[in-house]
Amino acid sequence: MGFYEVVTIVLAVVILYGIKLMSSPKTAVLGNRLGALSMFVSVLVVLFYNGIADVPVLWLAVLLGAIIGYLMAMKVAMIQMPQMVGLFNGLGGGASALVALVVIFETYPEMGLFSRFTSQLALVVGWVTLSGSLIAAGKLDRRIPQQPLVIKGHNVVNALCLLILGVLVAAGSFGSAAAAVVVSVLVTLLSLGFGVLFAIRVGGADMPITISLLNSYSGLAGAICGLTIGDPLLVSVGAIVGAAGIILTGIMCRAMNRSLLEVLNGSVAAVNLAGDSLLSPAAGENGGTAESEKSLDAPSLLKEAQKVIIVPGYGMAVSQAQWQVKKLLDVLESQGKEVKFAIHPVAGRMPGHMNVLLAEVDVPYDRLYEMEAINPEFKDTDVVVVIGACDVVNPAAITAEGTPIYGMPILRVDEAKYVVVCNMDTKPGYSGVPNPLYDRPNVVLLQGDAAETVEKLTREIQ
């Protein structure tokens, strides 16, 4: 075992340790920094080990990439974070595909059968990741309609694409150098097209799962590319990213009660929900109209409450309202009230998002409760304060069959005595399904920026 292999093992272990640290809000920032530092060291090791550290254009590329990445990370709003993750996934897959393409064009006659096969496979996975991620990011950013787009014979077309790609990969592995160039171009075009077909049939509500899956694809593309060029560092790091992405995909599928096959097939399509009785509050079960909520006063409800549960969501992240939420917690506890936080697994679009934001403002970790632990307590809760959450508290997930959200486990805030909702508006969330919770007579709507509404609410109960 040489120096390069030893360094590969060390860096892989450090990256894995960084991922482990990211499993806890208290150490997540350190884990992220450790992972970023390991990747930077990996780049330097590759440059110096291969004797290309003296090539000016490479350092220019590193500098340019670092500047672009820094500016994007500083400029991007929290609401755009999933889209940026999707974009970076695509760029990772595209980079692996480009490396494989260059290797094929320049060294195909000298390549062995295994390298030829993996190079073609890297093209497929890399280009599918690129085009699929661009579609996913476009849907999350609402630049592309979020509804699943299923063309006639979609499954047949997908199957034909995979079959043809399989044939082309085989042809590119056994053919001549001239034929390999033509095959590689065809593989590139067909893979890009398949990535689009793969992603457009997924609805907006399930798109975070697709982003996570494409994250694993980007790692897989890198690992396969590493096999092509015989680089153990690229293989190990790519495999780690791929495995982490698959694990995250599984977690999100369980949290949204979706099988991966259902997500990718667009099996649960959006429907026209206008006037749907399934979305209306049932009579005798906290049902009613928005008119009846006007008699309720949120500050009075909180002053009289003894048990309060706070439900943070993506809107809290967007408005950076965690600081105001911490102040609300302090005021409520100073008044002798029992306060807990209910955390949905996919609140914020990625597992752990809410935990990290609340840890940032020193909300005690023992105040945070996962969905399974907190759901039985809602029926005994005086007031639930929902802050920037929609889909994860939408009762339509229980009643509205045939909608993208149906069957998804939710936080049962609808069972509480009173609910105060601090959301920007009453528009549907990513699922596109209206939330009937807003129309219940025991619900107070405080519309507007969550940071402002929570701050005002806190002042009024002091």
TrEMBL record:
Residue intervals of the NADP transhydrogenase beta-like domain: 5-459
Catalysed reaction equations from the record: NAD(+) + NADPH + H(+)(in) = NADH + NADP(+) + H(+)(out)
Top EC category: translocase
Gene: pntB
Subcellular location as annotated: Membrane
Gene Ontology CC terms, in alphabetical order: membrane
Domain of life: Bacteria
Membrane-topology annotation of the record: Multi-pass membrane protein
The keyword Cell division is annotated on this UniProt entry: no
UniProt organism field: Thermacetogenium phaeum (strain ATCC BAA-254 / DSM 26808 / PB)
Entries under Pfam families matching the protein: PNTB
InterPro entries recorded: DHS-like_NAD/FAD-binding_dom, PNTB-like
EC number: 7.1.1.1
Single Gene Ontology MF annotation: proton-translocating NAD(P)+ transhydrogenase activity
Transmembrane residue ranges: 6-22, 34-52, 58-78, 85-105, 117-137, 149-171, 177-200, 212-229, 235-253
Record key words, sorted: Membrane, NAD, NADP, Oxidoreductase, Translocase, Transmembrane, Transmembrane helix
Name by which UniProt lists this protein: proton-translocating NAD(P)(+) transhydrogenase
